[in-house]
Inverse folding.
């Protein structure tokens, strides 16, 4: 395995760890101290090498996953041992954990399939399995560590060399402790509670730390703890809605969908029946994290903030949100990614236009929503040719589109909006635009907190109290930040669902305000 570092390049055979970077080795010995105590000093180096191998091969997969951290890995004679082993999730599924990192079996198989150590065995649901998923013998729980140790030693003798593209980032992150980790509590019947690990997130560029979000995230956590979030009474919601919308407002649906978003896996707390009945939620810290993706060179390329309770709510459910008992409005960036692309790549284009309106495509019977879905899927596809080959022919209202039709549609889109050419079939550019969106929203958040305005954040949307002064302040902040960043004023919608507690307006009549 090659361990890259700014100072030197180290080489490591699987059964020889003497040349591994000291920082990475020190991290492994510290995190796996409980396990290594049970291993003979004669074999500790081999086990450290095995652990480093697993971490490096899993890191690329784990870096972009909003990981949940289990407080235990598995039991042996009543002891907790950090190693690869099943960990039960709150949903009752089975995941694996390594050094406290929880990940799915699918991620594990994917990492192992990439590795040169094709015969590495792991414990999965009481059976021994390799990366080909062929079950071997059933083993008793108490022998798990010993058998796994024997398998490591058996295959370590082959002395493979490994190269991990993510080793540089892994070494830097572990040595400087620049990644946010949230560890959920261990159930009471597991004898002891897990500890909370909270390390800051950093942004990388070409393996160099360019900025850290630690101070901002801590400020945001402290700020949001002062916000009291509740739901409007269901009886206060206007009845001038479709039957589908009415279903969303039913007590059972609200209990199933909204309450868990404010508690349970998001807040890490149990839901009390009384809270559900009252539709009122206690103040809770939001487990915020900014999730990044790794590029092939190991640097982080983009990320969004996750963890606000509004992330998982539907448009209809957000109608009921109240901040400190007062109705709210949503300030939402219109067609956010296309608009940012327009401002970034085409200064002459009007960024207040409808980016998904193509009258010339009406002959195909395609509506605006379908154009939007085409655009989103095209941005995430690596080539137009593959995208067309993978399309299911459009069949809404018996409309049939051939591959030739799709080619014509794409050409029409690019002809009418040339700046789309920069992001269609270019996933990396699309990800960078998401990062632009995230950076813009974060810069706005900092100013909004300076104004002491309470808000909820939802990707490209701010939810604030329906107060004229607050609305004008947020609009001015977004206006200034947008002009500073792109030289244009960003185009937004203001959706006001509640005028007063007695006077409501239909969603179709929501106030729309453009800069």
């Amino acid at each position: 395995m090659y361990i890259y570092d700014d100072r030197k390049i180290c080489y490591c055979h699987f059964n020889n760890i003497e040349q591994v970077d000291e920082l990475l080795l020190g991290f492994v010995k510290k995190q796996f101290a409980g396990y290594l105590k049970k291993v003979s000093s004669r074999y500790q180096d081999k086990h450290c090498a095995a652990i480093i191998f697993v971490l490096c091969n899993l890191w690329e997969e784990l870096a972009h996953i909003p990981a949940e951290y289990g407080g235990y890995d598995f039991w042996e004679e009543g002891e907790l041992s950090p190693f690869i082993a099943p960990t039960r999730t709150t949903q009752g599924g089975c995941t694996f954990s390594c050094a406290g990192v929880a990940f799915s079996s699918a991620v594990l198989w994917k990492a192992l399939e990439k590795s040169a150590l094709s015969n590495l065995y792991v414990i999965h649901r009481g059976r021994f399995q390799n990366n080909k998923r062929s079950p071997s013998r059933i083993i008793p729980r108490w022998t798990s560590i010993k058998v796994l140790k024997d398998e490591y030693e058996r295959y370590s003798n082959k002395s493979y060399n490994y190269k991990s593209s993510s080793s540089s980032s892994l070494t830097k992150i572990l040595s400087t402790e620049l990644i946010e980790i949230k560890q959920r509590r261990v159930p009471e019947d597991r004898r002891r509670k897990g500890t909370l690990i909270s390390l800051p997130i950093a942004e990388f560029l070409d393996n160099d730390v360019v900025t850290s979000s630690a101070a901002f995230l801590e400020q945001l956590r402290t700020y949001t703890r002062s916000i009291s979030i509740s739901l409007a009474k269901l009886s206060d919601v206007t009845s001038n809605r479709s039957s589908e919308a009415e279903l969303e407002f039913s007590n059972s649906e609200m209990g199933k969908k909204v309450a868990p978003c404010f508690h349970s896996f998001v807040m890490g707390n149990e839901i009390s029946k009384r809270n559900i009945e009252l539709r009122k939620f206690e103040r809770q810290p939001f487990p915020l994290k900014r999730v990044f993706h790794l590029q092939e060179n190991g640097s982080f390329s983009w990320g969004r903030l996750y963890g606000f309770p509004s992330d998982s709510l539907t448009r209809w459910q957000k109608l009921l949100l109240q901040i400190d008992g007062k109705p709210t409005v949503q300030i939402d960036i219109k067609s956010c990614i296309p608009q940012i692309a327009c401002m970034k790549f085409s200064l002459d284009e009007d960024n207040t236009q409808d980016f998904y309106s193509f009258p010339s495509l009406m002959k195909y019977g395609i509506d605006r929503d379908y154009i939007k879905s085409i655009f989103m899927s095209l941005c995430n596809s690596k080539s137009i040719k593959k995208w067309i080959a993978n399309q299911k022919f459009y069949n809404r209202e018996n409309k049939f589109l051939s591959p030739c039709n799709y080619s014509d549609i794409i050409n029409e889109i690019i002809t009418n909006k040339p700046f789309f050419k920069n992001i269609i079939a270019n996933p990396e550019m699309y990800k960078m635009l998401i990062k632009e969106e995230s950076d813009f929203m974060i810069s706005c958040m900092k100013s909004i907190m300076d104004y002491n305005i309470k808000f909820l954040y939802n990707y490209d949307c701010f939810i604030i109290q329906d107060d004229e002064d607050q609305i004008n302040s947020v609009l001015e902040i977004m206006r200034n930040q947008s002009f500073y960043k792109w030289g244009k004023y960003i185009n937004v919608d203001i959706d006001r669902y509640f005028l007063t507690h007695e006077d409501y307006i239909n969603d179709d009549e929501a106030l729309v305000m453009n800069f």
Remarks:
- The chain has three domains: 2-199, 208-339+428-509, 357-416.
- The first helix runs from residue 22 to 31.
- The radius of gyration is 26 Å.
